Structure formats: structure tokens, C-alpha cells
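Students often ask why inverse folding is considered easier than folding. One informal answer: many sequences map to the same fold, so there is more than one right answer. In these notes we will look at a single instance of the problem. The structure comes first.
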């Protein structure tokens, strides 16, 4: 059975005290009767401390927002997967559109990062998604297929079990425009089909596929009740405890 997962991607937001307060506020009101996994993706600086705060909550995990494609060495300013694992991180987000756009990360870079993360026992939240013009030109399915194919389909079945996919149409990220639940379901169903073609039906059925892009308390239920949408990668709305909790409660 695949997991429902709600991830808060804080991006480059929140000072230390604000971060700790937000985590405490969410933890104090987590629904007890739900199995949804909750993941905080804070700045690297607070990851270890936040992992400690979450350690009593079995279904609460911590994610880094990025990792180096290198293992170790003379790469000033970089953070390795080994460092994230040794700071009690569980996941790392790889392939976010902001990293692809602002830091020019290619599918080939992502392969190196994914391999490094998996080799250091991290799970990967792999982001994919099209630009608005690609959707308008109806090339969005081919594009997402290529992203997944070039970054994930070299993996073994055992490694692929540690991949969570986040479909994030770029035109919906931080814009207040959400994909309709039908548009999102259509792409999620497509992603599950291509996973099934590559790794078989059982693996495809067990893969959690999250939606990201202006997900908020008003639209989360509509999205999460779609049959191939297993949760969300939440940016802006994860910075507010009540909004993030409302999204977690939407299952
Ligand atoms: P958003 O960001 O919820 O603010 O649109 C989502 C993301 O980029 O992960």
C-alpha cells in the first residue's frame, strides 16, 4: 500500500526561532487517527534540530531541499548526502523547478544527486513538471516522461522503492493558480502508467505521487481525493501552521 505524504517545502524562508515555532505548532496539533506521513523540509541549518524535535513522532520525517552531486571533497559551500544522513535527514528533494531554472541543474546532474542520496540511505522526493507553454502546445506528457526517464529509469527496483514523485506544473508554483484536480489526476495517472511499464504494476501501485503548485486548504481535499494523487508538496501554505495542518487534515 502506498503512503499518503504531505511535505512542507519551506524554500529559503524562516529564521531559526520561526522555524522551531512552526514545527512545534504543527506537532502539537497533528491528527492522531491519520496515517499520513508529514515531512518538514527546512533550511539545512535547522535540519538536525528539527529532526530531534520530530523524533518522537514516528510518521513525521525531515527532508533536505537539495544535496550535492559530489560525495565529499573540495566543493566549498556544498552539502553532501552523507552530511544530511548524519544529521538525521530522511529525505532530500531533488529536481525542484527552482533548482533546474536558477541553478541550471540538468537531468544528468540529477542522476548524480539521486545516486548519491540513495547510496547514503536518503529517500528522494523527485520533482517534475512542465512550463505553461509546454501545456499549451500539448507537449507536457512527453516532457514529464523525458524528465522521469532520464533521471530515474536507470535505477534498480530496490532503489526505485525509495523514490517519491512530486508532479509540480511550473505554471502553478507560487502563482496562486492550481492545476484543476482533473488536470493533476490526468498527469498522475500518466506517471503511474509509465512507472508500471518500466518497473511493473506492483511497484507503480506502491509509488507515492504528490502534487505541488499552489496547493492550499481550499483545494487540497479535491486534489487528494483523486485516485492517483497521494499527497502534496506544499510551498507557501506550509509556512503557516494552521494552513499546513488543514492540508494534512484534508485526507
Ligand atoms: P507553492 O510551492 O505551494 O508555493 O506553489 C510548491 C513548491 O514549489 O514545492
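Output (designed amino acids):
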Amino acid at each position: 500500500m502506498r503512503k499518503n505524504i504531505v511535505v512542507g517545502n519551506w524554500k529559503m524562508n524562516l529564521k531559526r526561532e520561526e522555524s522551531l515555532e512552526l514545527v512545534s505548532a504543527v506537532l502539537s496539533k497533528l491528527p492522531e487517527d491519520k496515517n499520513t506521513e508529514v515531512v518538514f523540509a527546512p533550511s539545512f541549518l535547522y535540519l538536525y534540530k528539527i529532526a530531534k524535535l520530530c523524533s518522537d513522532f514516528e510518521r513525521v520525517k525531515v527532508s533536505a531541499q537539495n544535496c550535492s552531486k559530489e560525495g565529499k571533497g573540495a566543493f566549498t559551500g556544498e552539502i553532501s548526502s552523507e552530511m544530511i544522513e548524519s544529521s538525521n535527514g530522511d529525505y532530500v528533494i531533488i529536481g525542484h523547478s527552482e533548482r533546474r531554472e536558477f541553478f541550471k541543474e540538468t537531468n544528468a546532474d540529477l542522476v548524480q544527486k539521486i545516486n548519491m542520496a540513495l547510496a547514503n540511505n536518503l529517500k528522494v522526493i523527485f520533482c517534475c513538471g512542465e512550463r505553461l507553454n509546454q501545456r499549451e502546445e500539448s507537449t507536457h506528457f512527453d516532457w514529464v516522461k523525458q524528465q522521469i526517464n532520464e533521471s530515474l529509469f536507470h535505477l534498480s527496483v530496490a532503489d526505485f522503492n525509495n523514490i517519491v514523485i512530486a508532479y509540480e506544473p511550473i505554471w502553478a508554483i507560487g502563482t496562486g493558480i492550481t492545476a484543476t484536480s482533473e488536470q493533476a489526476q490526468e498527469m498522475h495517472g500518466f506517471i503511474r502508467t509509465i512507472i508500471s511499464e518500466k518497473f511493473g504494476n506492483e511497484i507503480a501501485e506502491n509509488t507515492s505521487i504528490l502534487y505541488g503548485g499552489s496547493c492550499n486548504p481550499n483545494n487540497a481535499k479535491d486534489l487528494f481525493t483523486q485516485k492517483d494523487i497521494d499527497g502534496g508538496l506544499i510551498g507557501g501554505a506550509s509556512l503557516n501552521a494552521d494552513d499546513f495542518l488543514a492540508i494534512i487534515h484534508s485526507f
